[in-house]
Here is the input.
Amino acid sequence: MSSDVITLRIDEFTAKLIEGFIKYKLANSKADALRWIMQRGMQSTKITIERKERSELIIKKWKENGLPDLPQNLSEISIKERSCANYSDPHCPHL
Here is the structure.
């Protein structure tokens, strides 16, 4: 199978999405990131990067302040539901 090389001029928004994908190690190259965008669309790509940025902020906060204290009597499902509610994520897979 051969592949063709195509030179593209992209807008700044798309370039930032591609760089975000590489920065967060969601893609290994610009070509991989562009394939992701073409397969899933710009909006899906933007949401994926926003989620990754939020998770990076949460991890940074936890590293600085330590993990949050949770009551001992919560089940695993309750903890997941509570974590989604705290960050107001309408796309949380746990809800």
